[in-house]
Design brief:
The complex is a heterodimer. Chain A is of the alpha+beta class. Chain A is about 25% helix and about 35% strand. In chain A, a hairpin with a 5-residue loop joins β20 and β21. Classes of the chains: A alpha+beta, B mainly alpha.
């Protein structure tokens, strides 16, 4: 159990800067997921915590102790790698017990602890096998066992599920969650998969371009995205974005072709904004309904439980997710309706969230 | 792609067979010649049916050239060179691949360039160094005036001397450095995933621990391949042992074979010479047969 404090951390590779000053606090026992597209610096940040990557500027402290200059083994972190990184010439038991062997733990105690870990991970019958003879999920469990056996203060996961097939990924996801509940060690999990991030995280850190965009619970991040990037990155299909200008009695959208009547937003008339609306929050109504926007249906994707309807709003792509059983003909016209409270406003210049309406935000259900 | 064409198959097999005959024919002739007596071996043309004196000839060759101790010497030398090369080049490649220090690439290219400087090219300076290993240091001390200074102060004249002529170390050490081996290891180490290195670091293993526990076991195919090639290479060395072993007690089997070659005016005992050749050929053959499995694996593929 340890807290992690990150202050002004930067990372340069020669001339290119990949992490631009990150400040974060992870509480003891928390499960934090760092989410971001590839190349956003999330893995670099994790590797700096682990001690595999030098910190160019700023400090990282584990349990209040600055670890910048410490070797990985002195930091009390354990890491699970994307490709598992099992030692191919060692058996499962040797793989799990290797860190204890290095630490000089006597072999009797070592065997006992390996057994204990193997029991938790249901690897007991595989202890004599070589990694080559294991399936992907089993290798993943061995990699976790190798991390667990040292009873680390901090668990670091570097996209550990991305090499597994979809079904196994869901299964391992819940296993990781269970394991965390059981060990309650501080965990930092890096991923680019938003479903993984939403399901695992106590707290979500969304990164983009080497900067932290938002920190919050998954529900907060989903319902109140702090920036345009977060709004479009979290949620599938992505949030619809329409460019618009604030007018006296509402918003003019899409180069003045459409008007949207909303109550006073408190924004200066004439300011440029981006209006976001989640596909799940759009209702499809008969064309011509007062207040509805007319759009042309492009394509329908059937998902079984629901369907995604892609429509064209004067050239702007727009998607709707509905659980109603409707199958509008492609090419036909439909009306789109949504509640004011479901609109998200972002500044066109900075991409930052603009708080308008002061609408109540649903409390995150945790 | 697998072709299934009987005619092509026939021709490819024909070519393979021709190549096989081409390779094996000299050995067959050596073996047949070694089984003839003095008269039959000098018949023109020599009979290609084996004679009956094989074991007699082997025995004569063995005693005439005193092959027992010489095979032993050869074995010590070849084994020493092979083992030395395997160890030294593993360490060199480890340093080049896994450590960042200034001049790393320069060192790598310097090693690489020595591929173009085989022993034969540098044999005179190498001989000078082996004759007195400390000679370069002596030169440095003389040039810097250090020996003059020491003589002035203590009155002792510095004369460093350590000769390695006629010794196993003299035979082995100059042949141990190998660019080929370093390169082979380097290429292999580059294929070892970085995550493995990082996992070892997370597990608390230091550089040496990682080398011994992870890298060496992973490169055992490589070691077998390199060891085999280098054993053969060292076994077949002729010029270097000839040059530095003036003393019969350190003579090598390969160089001593010439004692069996008939002198001008002597009896043309080619059957004895051929028998001796067969004996000297045998140890490398055994090594290849034993190591063949790992040898091939080490050269063609990395185990994944």
């Amino acid at each position: 159990m340890a807290s992690i404090t990150i202050r002004g951390v930067k990372k340069n590779y020669a001339k290119t800067q990949v992490v631009h000053g990150v400040d974060l606090d992870f509480a003891s026992g928390e499960f934090v997921v760092i989410l971001g597209p590839s190349g956003c610096g999330k893995s670099t940040l994790l590797r700096m915590i682990a001690g595999l990557e030098e910190i160019s500027a700023g400090t990282i402290a584990i349990d209040g102790k600055v670890v910048n200059k410490l070797e990985p083994r002195e930091r009390g972190c354990a890491m699970v790698f994307q490709n598992y990184a099992l030692y191919p010439h060692m058996s499962v038991a040797q793989n799990i017990g290797y860190s204890l062997k290095v630490a000089g733990v006597p072999s009797a105690e070592r065997a006992q602890r390996v057994q204990a870990v193997a029991r938790v991970l249901e690897l007991e019958h595989l202890l004599d096998r070589k990694p080559m003879a294991l399936s992907g999920g089993q290798r993943q469990r061995v990699a976790m066992g190798r991390a667990m056996i040292r009873e680390p203060k901090v668990f670091l996961f570097d996209e550990p599920l991305s090499n597994l097939d979809a079904k196994l990924r869901v299964q391992m996801r819940s296993e990781i969650r269970k394991l965390h509940r059981r060990l309650s060690a501080t965990s930092v999990f890096v991923t680019h998969d938003q479903v993984e991030a939403m399901t695992l995280a106590d707290r979500l850190v969304v990164m983009n371009g080497g900067r932290v965009e938002q920190v919050g619970t998954p529900a907060e991040v989903y319902s109140r995205p702090a920036s345009r990037f977060v709004a479009t990155f979290v949620g599938a299909p992505a949030m619809n974005m329409l460019e618009g200008t604030v007018t006296l009695d509402g918003l003019s959208l899409l180069g003045d072709s459409r008007m949207l009547n909303v109550s006073r937003t408190g924004l200066a008339v004439g300011s440029k904004v981006a209006v976001g609306i989640r596909p799940e929050a759009v209702r499809m109504v008969a064309p011509g309904t007062p207040g509805a926007l007319a759009a042309t249906v492009d394509l329908i994707e059937e998902l079984g439980a629901g369907r995604v309807i892609y429509v064209d709003l004067d050239g702007a792509p727009f998607s709707i997710v509905t659980s109603e059983i409707v199958h509008p003909e492609p090419g036909s016209t439909v009306g789109l309706q949504f509640a004011e409270a479901d609109l998200h406003f972002f500044s066109s210049e900075t991409g930052g969230r603009l708080d308008v309406f002061k609408a109540s935000v649903p409390e995150p259900a945790l | 792609m697998v072709e299934r064409t009987p005619i092509l198959n026939f021709f490819t097999h024909l070519i393979l067979f021709a190549g096989f005959v081409f390779c094996v024919a000299p050995f067959v002739i050596v073996a047949i010649a070694a089984s003839h007596n003095l008269k039959d071996v000098n018949d023109v043309p020599m009979s290609l049916l084996p004679g009956s004196d094989f074991w007699v000839n082997i025995k004569t060759a063995w005693t005439t050239a005193d092959l027992g101790p010489k095979l032993f010497n050869s074995f010590i030398m070849a084994f020493g060179v092979a083992a030395g090369k395997v160890i030294v080049s593993a360490l060199t490649a480890f340093s080049i691949v896994y450590f960042r220090y200034p001049g790393r690439m320069l060192i790598f290219w310097l090693i690489f360039v020595t591929l173009m400087l085989p022993l034969e090219v540098r044999i005179v300076p190498t001989y000078a160094v082996v004759a007195n290993v400390l000679d370069p240091y002596q030169t440095i001390m003389d040039l810097t005036g250090l020996s003059w200074l020491i003589q002035k102060i203590s009155g002792v004249q510095v004369q460093l001397s350590l000769g390695l002529l006629n010794s196993y170390s003299g035979l082995i050490l100059p042949l141990v450095a190998t660019a080929t081996g370093t390169f082979l290891y380097r290429q292999f180490f580059l294929t070892v995933p970085d995550e493995l290195t990082e996992a070892a670091r997370m597990d608390g293993a230091g550089a040496l621990r990682f080398f011994v526990d992870i890298l060496l076991p992973l490169s055992r195919n490589n070691m077998a391949a390199l060891g085999t090639i280098m054993f053969l290479w060292a076994w077949n060395q002729y010029l270097w042992p000839l040059l530095i072993t003036t003393d019969q007690s350190h003579a090598m089997a390969v160089t001593e074979l010439k004692q069996l070659i008939p002198n001008v005016g002597g009896a043309p005992e080619w059957h004895i010479a051929m028998a001796g050749t067969l004996i000297v050929m045998l140890p490398p053959l055994i090594v290849v047969v034993l190591m063949q499995r790992w040898f091939v694996r080490g050269l063609i593929a990395t185990e994944k």
